[in-house]
Design goal:
two-stranded antiparallel sheet; 180 residues; single chain; 38% helix; Oxidized Rhodanese, domain 1; five-stranded parallel β-sheet
Protein backbone atom coordinates (compact mmCIF):
# COMPACT_ATOMS: atom_id res chain seq x y z
CA UNK A 1 0.00 0.00 0.00
CA UNK A 2 1.41 3.41 -0.87
CA UNK A 3 1.40 6.35 1.56
CA UNK A 4 -1.37 8.30 -0.22
CA UNK A 5 -3.69 5.27 -0.13
CA UNK A 6 -2.93 4.63 3.56
CA UNK A 7 -3.56 8.29 4.41
CA UNK A 8 -6.86 8.27 2.52
CA UNK A 9 -7.98 5.11 4.32
CA UNK A 10 -6.89 6.53 7.70
CA UNK A 11 -8.84 9.76 7.09
CA UNK A 12 -11.93 7.86 5.97
CA UNK A 13 -11.82 5.65 9.06
CA UNK A 14 -11.31 8.62 11.40
CA UNK A 15 -14.16 10.55 9.74
CA UNK A 16 -16.47 7.58 10.11
CA UNK A 17 -15.41 7.07 13.72
CA UNK A 18 -16.06 10.74 14.44
CA UNK A 19 -19.47 10.59 12.77
CA UNK A 20 -18.50 12.80 9.84
CA UNK A 21 -20.27 12.40 6.53
CA UNK A 22 -19.25 13.57 3.09
CA UNK A 23 -17.74 17.03 3.15
CA UNK A 24 -19.46 17.95 6.39
CA UNK A 25 -16.57 18.30 8.81
CA UNK A 26 -18.78 18.67 11.90
CA UNK A 27 -19.34 15.56 13.97
CA UNK A 28 -22.86 14.17 14.22
CA UNK A 29 -24.85 15.49 17.14
CA UNK A 30 -25.85 12.68 19.48
CA UNK A 31 -28.14 12.74 22.53
CA UNK A 32 -25.64 10.86 24.68
CA UNK A 33 -22.96 13.48 23.97
CA UNK A 34 -25.33 16.38 24.62
CA UNK A 35 -26.53 14.93 27.92
CA UNK A 36 -23.01 14.12 29.07
CA UNK A 37 -21.85 17.62 28.18
CA UNK A 38 -24.72 19.17 30.15
CA UNK A 39 -24.03 16.96 33.17
CA UNK A 40 -20.34 17.88 33.01
CA UNK A 41 -20.95 21.62 32.64
CA UNK A 42 -23.66 21.71 35.34
CA UNK A 43 -22.65 19.01 37.87
CA UNK A 44 -24.75 20.49 40.68
CA UNK A 45 -27.99 20.49 38.71
CA UNK A 46 -30.37 17.62 39.42
CA UNK A 47 -31.60 15.94 36.23
CA UNK A 48 -35.14 14.59 35.86
CA UNK A 49 -35.92 12.22 32.99
CA UNK A 50 -38.87 12.82 30.70
CA UNK A 51 -40.35 9.53 31.92
CA UNK A 52 -40.06 10.65 35.54
CA UNK A 53 -41.76 13.97 34.77
CA UNK A 54 -44.58 12.27 32.86
CA UNK A 55 -45.17 9.93 35.82
CA UNK A 56 -45.06 12.86 38.25
CA UNK A 57 -47.58 14.87 36.24
CA UNK A 58 -49.91 11.85 36.10
CA UNK A 59 -49.67 11.17 39.85
CA UNK A 60 -52.57 13.00 41.50
CA UNK A 61 -51.18 12.25 44.97
CA UNK A 62 -48.12 14.46 44.39
CA UNK A 63 -48.13 18.25 44.20
CA UNK A 64 -47.47 19.47 40.68
CA UNK A 65 -44.08 21.07 40.10
CA UNK A 66 -43.76 24.60 38.80
CA UNK A 67 -42.79 24.20 35.14
CA UNK A 68 -40.49 26.88 33.77
CA UNK A 69 -39.70 27.14 30.06
CA UNK A 70 -36.27 28.75 29.61
CA UNK A 71 -36.60 29.23 25.84
CA UNK A 72 -37.34 32.49 24.04
CA UNK A 73 -40.82 33.96 23.75
CA UNK A 74 -40.87 33.01 20.05
CA UNK A 75 -40.07 29.38 20.87
CA UNK A 76 -42.63 29.31 23.69
CA UNK A 77 -45.31 30.75 21.39
CA UNK A 78 -45.00 27.76 19.04
CA UNK A 79 -45.54 25.20 21.82
CA UNK A 80 -44.65 24.32 25.38
CA UNK A 81 -45.51 21.92 28.18
CA UNK A 82 -49.00 22.28 29.61
CA UNK A 83 -49.10 24.75 32.53
CA UNK A 84 -45.54 25.93 31.85
CA UNK A 85 -44.54 29.53 32.45
CA UNK A 86 -42.04 31.39 30.30
CA UNK A 87 -38.88 32.25 32.27
CA UNK A 88 -36.00 33.12 29.97
CA UNK A 89 -33.68 34.04 32.84
CA UNK A 90 -33.51 34.22 36.62
CA UNK A 91 -34.98 37.76 36.65
CA UNK A 92 -38.15 36.53 34.94
CA UNK A 93 -38.27 33.29 36.96
CA UNK A 94 -38.14 34.86 40.43
CA UNK A 95 -41.53 36.66 40.20
CA UNK A 96 -43.12 33.39 39.06
CA UNK A 97 -41.74 31.69 42.18
CA UNK A 98 -42.54 34.56 44.54
CA UNK A 99 -45.43 32.72 46.21
CA UNK A 100 -43.66 29.37 46.17
CA UNK A 101 -41.57 28.25 49.09
CA UNK A 102 -37.90 27.50 48.64
CA UNK A 103 -38.71 23.75 48.75
CA UNK A 104 -41.42 23.92 46.07
CA UNK A 105 -40.56 21.52 43.24
CA UNK A 106 -39.48 23.36 40.10
CA UNK A 107 -38.75 21.71 36.74
CA UNK A 108 -36.97 23.82 34.15
CA UNK A 109 -36.70 22.89 30.48
CA UNK A 110 -35.63 24.37 27.15
CA UNK A 111 -34.95 22.71 23.79
CA UNK A 112 -32.26 20.20 24.83
CA UNK A 113 -31.23 21.20 28.35
CA UNK A 114 -28.41 23.76 28.24
CA UNK A 115 -30.37 26.94 28.91
CA UNK A 116 -32.60 25.21 31.44
CA UNK A 117 -29.62 23.77 33.31
CA UNK A 118 -28.15 27.25 33.56
CA UNK A 119 -31.43 28.61 34.94
CA UNK A 120 -31.78 25.64 37.33
CA UNK A 121 -28.25 26.30 38.59
CA UNK A 122 -29.05 29.99 39.17
CA UNK A 123 -32.30 29.18 41.00
CA UNK A 124 -30.49 26.68 43.22
CA UNK A 125 -27.88 29.34 44.01
CA UNK A 126 -30.75 31.65 45.04
CA UNK A 127 -31.92 29.13 47.65
CA UNK A 128 -34.47 27.01 45.81
CA UNK A 129 -33.64 23.49 46.96
CA UNK A 130 -35.95 21.35 44.84
CA UNK A 131 -35.03 22.39 41.29
CA UNK A 132 -34.59 19.97 38.39
CA UNK A 133 -33.55 20.24 34.77
CA UNK A 134 -35.70 18.18 32.42
CA UNK A 135 -33.03 16.02 30.81
CA UNK A 136 -33.46 16.05 27.04
CA UNK A 137 -35.95 18.86 27.58
CA UNK A 138 -38.76 19.59 25.12
CA UNK A 139 -37.12 17.88 22.13
CA UNK A 140 -36.84 14.53 23.88
CA UNK A 141 -40.30 14.94 25.44
CA UNK A 142 -41.86 15.38 21.98
CA UNK A 143 -39.69 12.73 20.31
CA UNK A 144 -41.15 10.25 22.81
CA UNK A 145 -44.67 11.17 21.72
CA UNK A 146 -45.58 13.22 24.79
CA UNK A 147 -47.94 16.17 24.33
CA UNK A 148 -47.05 19.82 23.80
CA UNK A 149 -49.47 22.73 23.81
CA UNK A 150 -50.17 26.18 22.45
CA UNK A 151 -52.73 28.07 24.54
CA UNK A 152 -53.86 24.79 26.20
CA UNK A 153 -54.50 23.22 22.79
CA UNK A 154 -52.41 20.16 21.86
CA UNK A 155 -50.20 20.81 18.81
CA UNK A 156 -47.59 18.87 16.87
CA UNK A 157 -45.15 21.71 16.25
CA UNK A 158 -42.00 22.67 18.12
CA UNK A 159 -39.59 25.47 17.39
CA UNK A 160 -36.37 23.66 16.33
CA UNK A 161 -34.13 26.43 17.77
CA UNK A 162 -31.68 26.29 14.86
CA UNK A 163 -30.45 23.91 12.16
CA UNK A 164 -27.80 22.28 14.33
CA UNK A 165 -29.84 21.64 17.49
CA UNK A 166 -32.95 20.95 15.44
CA UNK A 167 -31.29 17.73 14.27
CA UNK A 168 -32.14 16.30 17.70
CA UNK A 169 -35.85 16.94 17.13
CA UNK A 170 -37.86 14.51 15.02
CA UNK A 171 -38.54 16.29 11.71
CA UNK A 172 -42.30 15.76 12.01
CA UNK A 173 -42.35 18.31 14.84
CA UNK A 174 -40.32 21.03 13.13
CA UNK A 175 -42.06 24.33 12.76
CA UNK A 176 -40.74 27.41 11.10
CA UNK A 177 -41.27 29.27 14.34
CA UNK A 178 -44.42 30.87 12.96
CA UNK A 179 -47.48 30.87 15.17
CA UNK A 180 -50.69 30.36 13.20
Amino acid sequence: MNAVYRTTIALAVSWLAAGLTGCNLRPALEWTDVKESIRTEFPGVRQLSTRELAEWLADTSRPLPVLLDARTADEFAVSHLRRAELATDVASALPLLEDAGSETPVVVYCSVGYRSSQLAEELTARGYSNVFNLEGSLFQWANEGRPVYRHDVPVRAIHPYDARWGRLLDKRFHSRGIVE
